[in-house]
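re: that complex we talked abt at group meeting.

here r the seqs, copy pasted straight from the sheet so there may be weird spacing, ignore it
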Amino acid sequence: MSPRPPAPDAPAGGPEGHVFLEHTADIRLLAWAQSLPEVIAQALLATASVLFPAPEVARVETRIVTLEAPDPVSLVVQSLNELLFLLDTEGFLLGQVSVEVSGPGLEQQKPARSAPVRATLRLTGDRLGSSQREYRVMAGLKAATYNCARVSYVPERRRWEATLTLDV
Amino acid sequence: MSGPLSDLVRLDDYRWLIPKTRQPGMRTEGLIYASAAMLPGIVQDRAHEQVANVACLPGIVGRSLAMPDIHWGYGFAIGGVAATEVDQGVVSPGGVGYDINCGVRILRTNLSAADVRPRLAKLIDAIFAAVPAGVGGQGGLVLKEPELQAVLRDGAAWAVGRGLGRPADLVACEDGGKIGSADPRAVTDKAAKRGLGQLGTLGSGNHFLEIDVVDEIYDQQAAEVFGLRHGQVVLGIHVGSRGLGHQVCADSLETMQKAVVRYGISLPDRQLACAPVKSPEGSRYLGAMAAAANYAWANRQVITDSVRHVLAEVFAQSKDALGLELVYDVAHNIAKIERHSVEGHERTLCVHRKGATRAFPAGHPDVPAPYRAVGQPVLVPGDMGRYSYVLVGTAEAMRQTFGSTCHGAGRLMSRTAAKQNTRGDDVQRDLAAQGIIVRGRSRSGLAEEAPSAYKDVQQVVDVVHGAGISRRVARLRPLGVIKG
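got the structure back, here u go
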């Protein structure tokens, strides 16, 4: 089956960003950027924004997460699930993120299929109840799923895109 | 028939076949239970494509099934049922979902609506204060690691053993409130960490606590056996295994991504990733899933105890005087190893129910003894403005659906559309005008859960009743609702 197409009115311009697409029960997101690390960062910010607006989160604590995955789709799914794990176990909310990725073929926008890709996520934000700020988390997310997940360089738009479904 | 509906072949008023030729890789046909009126919505939602995808699972037995509350999910459609051969088939964590053993229980009381109405607001506020809800959802019992292991092993019995319930509660739970084959060692440290502080919490999304009144009895004999009568107040609890279950599924899916390569399995959607039931990966998943299912039963049991305490306090009566007996507790996201008759042969199958409820008939040994004469109670919540149903399992369900039926109303509208359509404050006010008191942790959450966002559960129940895969017993109307 081909993945569901983006909603036709999805505003998907600019060098990087994200939008949410229609989904009956859950949340489907499209993130885009100029590189794989940046598109992972955009997907993380999109997911974080479902919980609480990232720009409004104080940047007082940092978590470093290292991941290894067989392909970019797994890397993005795992990255988003790490964020949800940190929220559940530490009340951690994301304000800012930077991502480093390594793996063969990435410079040519074509990750090798036979070799793993590795990422280091530098997540900066705040914890619920830890500072003077009062955060009211807007929605709960169970997980990032593999359902019709795509993470790839799209030559015609000259950018990386990640399309994923979040289970609510 | 032309257009997209031409993919489907009408068998009768309630059943629509997806031919095996619809897409490459289908090993069997798909079958959707729906009325003609429901079908365009299902096709527009493209949920039938997910039913066809599930038909590609190795070792699938019979058809890939979908109940009438079907809607687009991830991997499996919500409302999906698939049985696989234990010896040669696969188990797929996507066929259970992240909220392992999400389920429903109802408690009957000795109270009438007239008894409850004057104290309804106080009661709802007291329950809202007593049961932690919302995102993150810490605030539950704080467990030490050995206690968590016991919860994962013993399920609801762990809670009852600590005085958080009655021995009779266990009799009224599917599987007695625990799957004996649970393997706590298969639960990762990350999943365990998420479970340490969340037992007894409601979480968020569509989970709820509800006070209902029985407003219609359809099957007097079954209702009497279930202890239900017209005008009686009952309490509903809908929640699952919280972050622990979510992490078990996420971790297992990572394992299964590798397993599909190892076992040479080709699938149309990576969320369907799976492994042979008897492989190390399959066994490990089933052990961890069962442990998470046990956590969910313990969770509903701890919440039950909190709710009983609140009622005793608000009504200044003992819990026993109020009744508060558990009618039944069903799992609607689960995979079970069950015996079924297929084309005249008894077979051991792995039955995945993703948003579907077991519906075993009268006489089945897995139906608790007090209910065995009529069949297993099936609990089908609707939306918070209309009604919910109690059904009973049937022999026809064993013949058609591996003993399965619907689990709820099913979403009609996306969460985004629901929030564009209405505001949480408006939902609360409109329901108050109907005499239904609603509390929620988040206004946007209330908007997402607005009655208009759901199918009319009556239409869903009409289909399963009409098709014979379960039978109406009673209808419940909400008086008060707490949303996570």
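couple things i noticed - Chain A has one domain: 21-105+114-167. The radius of gyration of chain A is 15 Å.
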